[in-house]
Write a structure and sequence with these properties.
By secondary structure, this protein is α+β, with helices and mostly antiparallel strands. It has 16 helices and 13 strands. The radius of gyration is 23 Å and the shape is elongated.
């Protein structure tokens, strides 16, 4: 039998169990988001990715996941922490976006699970959806009053910003919904200007074909025109959040200042470790088909951008990859060698039978400036 339960009690449970923000929306279809998903898919802005685009009706219709759903209880969990500068020329370091450095989704799940347990103890049904293809998380968060859509498309929590992962509990318990938060970017356009690939084509609209956060996850060829601006990023991209003035609030919260970490991974390690080690270390990241060669592809691009050409180790690793049995990796090693001005390593490659390799050999590549 179902009994009454207060939203304020659930909020307290969520906050006590690690959530940073809590809100409630009606579990109705996100009609506007459905149209947007369809339109962006038609325009190709989704870059062929699946996720919420696989079935836009499902990801915007909570009732398709729980037919008698009444409410979406949305939680946010902060992932901000101070970054330590870690560049060391003798061991090039790849930058990992903040959200991917630890398993913040598990911490979010802990908070949402505590709330779900309370609902279930009172006889209600719950389904937790976190980063799941069945729900567009940002729209759920927007409707639950958690925050507004920034011009970089992220949900910004008032007085804190966007360094948050988002998730929801779908339930058949009915609650009064929150009202959406007021837009508060004002005239600022810092994120649009800071995007290295001009992927924010208009406020709130991302062209994923240009977004580095997608390109490092994509199994397609990494577009040559975006390889230089990838710089040292091995996974994810935080550029449009790093510059956001609202995010500075989060960075001032005293209790968070103790969260400090080295935010990078050794490029040499990625290029030298075996498949099993790489998947055990980085398997929580989205890597196409869980195939570590895509991680190595990203690492070769980063090596080309930040490696020291004179380093014996850099040259040794490149030579190894230029002889790899995998033509995709050989081709990225060609790019990295050219970028580092090490064309001398490419002698004999003109006889390589791979189209990928020949394409890279023919490509104009701007050499890095000597450090
Ligand atoms: C696919 C996906 C991606 C793709 C596409 C991103 C995108 N913008 O769609 C890629 C791989 C590029 C990506 C990158 C990132 N992602 Co992502 N991603 C998702 C996923 C799986 C689906 C998102 C989706 O449905 N997009 C569809 C389009 C239609 O949505 P949208 O861009 O948000 O569009 C909305 C706005 O345009 C808004 N809108 C409409 N009109 C207007 C007008 C104005 C003026 C404005 C301002 C807004 C606006 O309404 C639209 C629809 O609701 C969700 C998880 C989930 N299940 O929801 C995580 C999610 C969105 N990603 C997340 C994160 C953290 C990131 C990154 C920051 C990771 C990183 N550091 O590399 C980057 C940020 C890139 C960016 N600026 O958006 C978080 C966002 C948290 C937050 N606070 O907003 C989510 C919610 C994951 C999670 N559960 O926490 N992601
Ligand atoms: S994540 Fe990076 S590439 Fe994507 S929109 Fe933001 S700044 Fe641009
Ligand atoms: S950088 Fe400026 S425009 Fe972009 S999300 Fe932050 S406040 Fe909004």
């Amino acid at each position: 039998m179902q009994t009454l339960i207060k939203a304020s009690d659930l909020e307290k449970t969520g906050l006590d169990n690690g959530l940073d923000a809590f809100g409630i929306a009606k579990a109705e279809q996100f009609t506007k988001t459905l149209e947007i998903l369809k339109a962006r898919k038609e325009q190709g802005l989704h870059a062929g990715m699946n996720f919420t685009y696989r079935n836009p009706v499902r990801s915007t219709t909570p009732a398709m996941t729980m037919p008698d759903a009444q409410s979406l209880i949305v939680g946010a969990r902060s992932y901000w922490k101070t970054q330590e500068e870690a560049f060391d020329g003798s061991d090039p370091q790849g930058k990992v976006a903040l959200y991917a450095q630890e398993n913040y989704y598990e911490r979010l799940r802990k908070g949402l699970s505590a709330v779900a347990d309370e609902l279930e103890s009172k006889g209600f049904k719950t389904i937790i959806l976190i980063d799941d293809n069945a729900l567009v998380d940002r729209e759920a968060a927007y409707q639950a009053g958690i925050g507004w859509y920034g011009k970089n498309a992220n949900i910004l929590i008032p007085k804190r910003g966007s360094w948050f992962v988002l998730g929801s509990i779908l339930t058949n318990a009915a609650f009064e919904p929150n009202t959406p938060a007021k837009e508060n970017c004002g005239p600022c356009t810092k994120c649009i200007n800071a995007c290295p690939t001009e992927a924010i084509t208009s406020p709130g609209v991302i062209d994923s074909n240009r977004c580095l956060a997608w390109l490092v996850q994509s199994p397609e060829d990494f577009p040559p025109e975006f390889r230089e601006v990838l710089g040292d990023k091995i996974y994810g991209c935080d550029d449009c959040q790093d510059v956001c003035p609202i995010n500075k609030y989060e960075e001032r919260i005293e209790s968070l200042k103790t969260r400090r970490d080295r935010s990078t991974v050794s490029i040499f390690n990625i290029l030298e470790q075996d498949d099993e080690t790489l998947i055990s270390k980085y398997g929580q990241w989205y890597i196409p088909q869980r195939d570590p060669r895509y991680l190595r592809r990203n690492a070769l691009l980063v090596l080309g951008n930040i490696g020291i050409a004179e380093s014996e180790k850099v040259q040794f690793i490149l030579m190894r990859y230029l002889k790899s049995a995998d033509s995709m990796l050989r081709s990225y090693a060609v790019w990295a060698a050219k970028r580092l001005g090490l064309s001398n390593l490419l002698t004999g490659m003109e006889n390589d039978g791979s189209e990928d390799v020949q394409r890279e050999l023919a490509l104009q590549v701007r050499q890095v400036e000597k450090r």
